[in-house]
C-alpha cells in the first residue's frame, strides 16, 4: 500500500510573504509617484510654476508630500 505525505506551510508563512510583497509594491508605487511628480513639475516653465504659486526649489518637497503624504 502506498502512502502520500504532504507538507503544507502554515497560512501565517504565506501571510507574511504576501504582506512583505504588498509593502514592497506600495513602496515602489510611492517612488513612481514621486519620480513622475518631480519630472512633470520640473518640465514646467518658470511662468507656469509662478501661475501655480510653486517655487522651483519646492518641487521635491511637493513631490514628497504627493508620494509619501508628509
Automatic annotation (TrEMBL):
Residues 25-60 form the YjiS-like domain. InterPro entries: YjiS-like. Pfam families: YjiS-like. It comes from the Bacteria. This is YjiS-like domain-containing protein. It comes from Amylibacter marinus. The lineage of its organism: Bacteria, Pseudomonadati, Pseudomonadota, Alphaproteobacteria, Rhodobacterales.
Amino acid at each position: 500500500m502506498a502512502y502520500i505525505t504532504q507538507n503544507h506551510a502554515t497560512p501565517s508563512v504565506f501571510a507574511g510573504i504576501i504582506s512583505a510583497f504588498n509593502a514592497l509594491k506600495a513602496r515602489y508605487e510611492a517612488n513612481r509617484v514621486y519620480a513622475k511628480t518631480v519630472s512633470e513639475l520640473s518640465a514646467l516653465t518658470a511662468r507656469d510654476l509662478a501661475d501655480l504659486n510653486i517655487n522651483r526649489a519646492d518641487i521635491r518637497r511637493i513631490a514628497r508630500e504627493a508620494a509619501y503624504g508628509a
